[in-house]
Design a protein that fits this description.
The protein is of the alpha/beta class and 338 residues long. The chain has twelve helices and nine strands. It has helices at residues 12-28, 54-65, 86-95, 110-116, 135-153, 177-188, 217-223, 246-253, 257-269, 294-297, 304-323, 334-337; strands spanning 43-48, 69-74, 100-105, 123-129, 166-170, 192-196, 212-214, 227-230, 279-281. The chain has a five-stranded parallel β-sheet with strand order 7-6-5-8-9, sandwiched between helices. Strands 2-1-3-4 form a four-stranded parallel β-sheet, sandwiched between helices. Strand 3, helix 4 and strand 4 form a beta-alpha-beta unit. It starts with 11 loop residues before the first helix and ends with a helix. It binds phosphoric acid mono(formamide)ester. Residues 52-55, 128, 137, 283-285 line the site of phosphoric acid mono(formamide)ester. Phosphoric acid mono(formamide)ester (CP) binds next to helix 2.
């Protein structure tokens, strides 16, 4: 794998291979010495033109746990403010020895452009480009779903698939690269996806996507789902005309305390298939009180922090496959030693 730019078209075998490697990477977390030597001498550049907490820091942690050197670049405070182009910025960083560039950019297609332009030889990982894709978020979400299903079934995650798993992706689908990457990846892995959103926040063309579309969150929850993935309302990309009032949004499309209580009641009564096991996901950062209530975000059903933890293992797997060729067993260090 030379680059990871999107989950659209990502072969199922590649996706499963990354998830399986991430499982082995997570075992490193439980060791006394948490570092593997497999990327010693390699340099990973985090090239962030948009703000980030989880993605940037977890790529940094992932690279360091594989013994790579890390250079963090934030556009804010750099020569980008003097008008330096993406090409010149990337070539400058590659001249400092970048083997892989992890890029987040406000423009959809920026990662693809960097990878395909021939400006640099380094591998490119898309860490979120505009409203287009966020493939490592989708991989860590699939990893979280697979672990949840395996825990419920009492099986090994590596041998567990997502076939038939019912996932509702809820909220600001229009602006969400997380929704798009999840839709492509989860359907590749066999899950049934329903998009739930206000009509103004459903993208034109979504009717052709491999998902059911609903405007009614309660109807979807009543039908039974294995996971509800709440999306951040992206105020920074929102036009006022697209958005109901915050109060109406929270009431109709937010996972509020009343919906949590209804889910708990249904689970206790066995009234809805899988209600007892339904998890509540959110990629973060959360707008508490808008798309998700504190009661739901902090409930035992919430996987928000598990998703963050899983993100490190998944990003270790991605860097390992990119820079050490995967899919040898990373715990032996064999690929880097070869
Ligand atoms: N989920 C996610 O991409 O979070 P950050 O913006 O904090 O990286």
């Amino acid at each position: 794998m030379k680059h990871l730019l999107s989950t659209a078209g990502l072969p199922r075998a590649t996706a499963v291979g990354l998830l399986d490697t991430a499982e082995r990477m997570s075992e490193v977390e439980h060791r006394e010495i948490k570092k593997l030597p497999v990327l010693r001498g390699r340099t990973v550049v985090n090239l962030f033109f948009e703000d980030s907490t989880r993605t940037r820091i977890s790529f940094e942690a992932a690279a360091k746990r594989l013994s790579a050197d890390v250079i963090n670049f934030a556009a804010r405070g750099s020569s980008v403010s003097k008008g330096e182009s993406l090409k010149d910025t990337a070539q400058t960083l590659e001249a400092m020895g970048a083997d892989a560039v992890v890029i987040r950019h406000a423009s959809s297609g920026a990662a693809e452009q960097l990878a395909r332009s021939g400006w640099i030889d380094a591998g490119v990982v898309n860490a979120g480009d505009g409203t287009h894709e966020h493939p490592t978020q989708a991989l860590l979400d699939a990893f979280t779903l697979r672990r949840h299903r395996a825990a419920v079934a009492g099986t090994d995650p590596a041998g567990t698939d997502l076939a038939g798993m019912r996932v509702a992706i809820v909220g600001d689908v229009l602006h969400s690269r997380v929704a798009r990457s999840n839709l492509w990846l989860l359907t590749t892995l066999g899950a049934d996806v329903t998009l739930v959103a206000p009509p103004t926040l459903v993208p034109v063309g979504a009717g052709g996507w491999p998902a059911r579309i609903s405007y009614d969150l309660d109807e979807v929850l009543d039908g039974g789902v294995d996971a509800v993935m709440m999306l951040r309302v992206q105020a920074e990309r929102m036009q006022a005309a697209f958005f109901p009032t915050a109060r109406e949004y929270a009431r109709r499309w937010g996972f509020d305390a009343a919906r949590l209580a209804a889910l708990d009641r249904a689970g206790a009564a066995g009234a809805r298939a899988a209600a007892a096991e339904t998890i509540i996901m959110h990629p973060g950062p959360m707008n508490r009180g808008l798309e998700i209530a504190a009661e739901a975000a902090d409930s035992p059903r919430s996987t928000v922090l598990a998703q963050v933890r899983n993100g490190v293992s998944v990003r270790m797997a991605v860097l390992y496959h990119l820079l050490a060729g995967g899919p040898d067993d990373p715990s032996t260090g064999s690929a880097a030693d070869a």
